[in-house]
Fold each of these.
Amino acid sequence: MSSVVLLDYGSGNLRSAERALQRAGAEVTLTKDFDTALEADGLVVPGVGAFAACMRGINAVRGGTLVWDRLRKRRPVLGICVGMQVLFETGVEHGEQTDGLGVLPGAVTRLEADVVPHMGWNTVDVPPGSTLFDGLEQERFYFVHSYAVHGTVEDALTTTARHGEPFVAAVERGALSATQFHPEKSGDAGAALLHNWVKSLS
């Protein structure tokens, strides 16, 4: 059974993600311990709320160093919701620009849509060759967000969705995977996606 650390840096209720990963076949540890997170088969970076607040929490537990060290060693990392957003270079919320981890190029900015936040189920446009979405190309996933990355991500498989305008719904690049939606809240489709990720760890 693959070991997965769910990084506990003070962002939201992590129990639903923990249970979903366990159902996907992982042995899950909820911790902020650097060495435990570094050595696990997989690391999940969750995130809810504001970009700046999440970055403060991540920095407090050396999360940036952790993510970069894992990726240099080609050890899998999965970012979820704001945990995906912080992987990019910057986030802009309420006129405040905050540095992200800079693993991926681009900025997180407000969605231009008639209704914000984007809350609810939405389809995604999956590129060929996706590991995360294997068998899930026609499924819907659950989103809750007001900010997003626009365009596509250079040198990465980019899955997109649309709410008022196109935005990045998921990214896959080497050992790094990330989703803007919440797989743990996305029913059978989300469970299957997490199973695909956990299966890729072995």
Amino acid sequence: MSIVRIGLIQASNDLHGDEPVEAHKRLAIEKHIGLVREATAKGAQIISLQEIFYGPYFCAEQQTKWYAAAEEIPHGPTTKLFQELAAELGVVIVLPMYEREGIATYYNTAAVIDADGTYLGKYRKHHIPHVAAGGGTGGFWEKYYFKPGNLGYPVFDTAYAKIGVYICYDRHFPEGARALGLNGAEIVFNPSATVAGTSEYLWKLEQPAHAVANGYYVAAINRVGVEAPWNMGEFYGQSYLVDPRGAISAIGSRDKDEVVIGEMDKELIREVRDVWQFYRDRRPETYHHIVSL
């Protein structure tokens, strides 16, 4: 199968952050199930949701309340629910959630579910920001909520393509993007929650660069809207699919809930890699010092 249809889901959060955690989860899960069904009806075979899809970007504040949003993966109820949905629809789902391991260890994670409902594994976000937001109030206080990922850079061999995951802030670090390519990724999904400012300029710069440097597709997903009570800035959407030549082949709007559909062509990956032999010509024996600087 050379052509694979990709579905990217961007959505706003519909509740005020002061509402109970379970109210956020219930409403957002219901909403995203509908959007997954819409993406499938439009022909999507691999579908990705946005970073921690089932609520607001709560890292704008530091409150123990949000620990209650975390679930075990894959044994929690949300993973199981979307396993059933994937099997029903015959689609692969990239499912970004807040993960709890053991009693109280937390990660920013994405589960990968195959088209028959099989749980294939998970990626844990490696690079954890802890900075003030560019406007409004609040910030990206992620070290309060997440430990750095410790599962490496896995690639999942799904029914339709070999996929990797890199989450939000990870995209600023080319090393992991290269590792995913070396591990065999044909497409890398980057579910995000990022607001206007410097980020928006980099949004369409860094990820096409990763696609070109590594000869794969990148699917970038960002939520939309302004989330109260923090009002830390506008989540500017513009979810997109970029090909190995750096061309954006599908892109969403800035400000509305949307299912973005694009096509990846595996033959284009082969064609690009045959012309630009970056993996052949790289010199790993000369790079060792960068990890000790």
Amino acid sequence: MSRYVKKIFIFAFPPLGAFILKALRLTLRMEVVNRPPEDTQFIFSFWHGRILMMPFTALSRPVSVMISRHGDGELIARIVKYLGISSSRGSTTRGGVSALKELIKLAREGFCPAFTPDGPRGPRYVVQPGVIHAAKATGLPIYPVTYSARKKKL
């Protein structure tokens, strides 16, 4: 794919991607188990393989999620922006320290930081230290979040 086509894709796809996710959400039945109280601030933590429906678990809280600076991360950051979620850009391999500082600052402003602690490069289901550093710096509890999906019964 040429650089020009990539730029058009990065610009044009996010609203469509957000629409597709919202449409997909309508086909699923969601049941929240062990929901934290609405006025509780915490750190969202979910495995990298469970990203798809996570924008719908925020439960009306302001959230900022750490997203890598890679090209795929740019696409994800733009899509979640259309879903009302801000992002801090960085990962364990590039820009993680500055993104972590930004998330800590936002947490002090009332946002719930969100992490995929195993990251895109893994190792899968192994927590990297960023989420722990955020919890220590903010004093917020880490709240593991996951979901499973099945067809919605009509």
Amino acid sequence: MISARGARRWALGHPWVFRSDVVVPAPIDAGAVDVVDQRERPLGTALWSAASEISVRFVSRDPGLVLDRAWWEARLRSAVDRRSPILDAANHGKPDSNTNSDTNACRLVHGEGDGLPSLVVDRFDRWLVVQLLSAGLEAHRAVILEALQAVVPTDGILARNDASVRAREGLPRVIEPLVGTVPEGIEVREHGVRYLAAPHGGQKTGAFLDQREARVLVGTLARGRALDVFSYHGSFALHLARRAESVTAVDVSAAAIARAAENAALNGLTNIRGVEADAFEFLRAEEAAGARYDTIVLDPPAFAKNRGAIAGALRGYKEINLRAMRLLAPGGMLYTASCSYHVRKPEFLAMLEEAAADSGRRVILRGITGQPLDHPEVLTVPETGYLKGAVLEIQD
């Protein structure tokens, strides 16, 4: 039983109910439960996590649902079918070169964005990487794996259950094979570029699939001397290098720079130079030296991990964008992004406006980017949307 406030939240389209709005707890630690309001009116079926701050995650407005294999298969198939313009599971991932589907990797399930709260499934060629991020979902692990294999033929499934949110659910943080074996490195094809995903030890589930479309866009804009800051494994740099004369890829991690070099070699690209450096220090030094670039990409990690970090994050975002604007030659292009959920799109754009004003340059907004098709953002569930970006042109 949940409070009127919790019931209203669900009525308005958000599947989460917090512990403070649970009036009568479920009699189990974790699993599927029927939910009613304080008048005992049925509200639907949800995943219950007794130890979590997010105690209730609704999956349907239908009460009394049995979350059996048939239900999971239907919900998973719906999510996979939604990705057919990118990667058609029915033809085993064979791309259509005439569409925006020239890739063998994409997200198949984006949690609440696909009506499957706390479940993430990413596909890398013939293998799957999954995250089960709540106790309520974990209780259904066996049937989910059966359903997933029925919907998506695969050579192996790896669990990247090392996310910190699992600790708040009272769950262990582990990386473990669930079905078959998954290679340490998997070659990903992405619109003519190849790179190695690292499902066992890389960021997220092995690669940043959410920036796929932005990388392709940036590749069409690249020219002259290019700079990729926070480059990680060089995914943006690879697309830049196909049109730019030279690319400098900057990352604080020596291991990331080494992997970026491997990816460059995989594509036969010799015009990418890796630099191991702190991004802020590098940008300051380049500005002081009077350096000029024609194309710059800023794709930093999340600066704001919580609401309390928003002010500091915005200062950080402003500094790197201000310096990038000053480093660009006239006519230069900047692609800048934020993956901080707590920094919303209006705040992000306001920060860019302030940076442009302080730069002394005339900065043109050429476009705003969001999440691709395989990372659906539900308007009534803002937590499903976190990625935003902008394409800027320095006109003078």
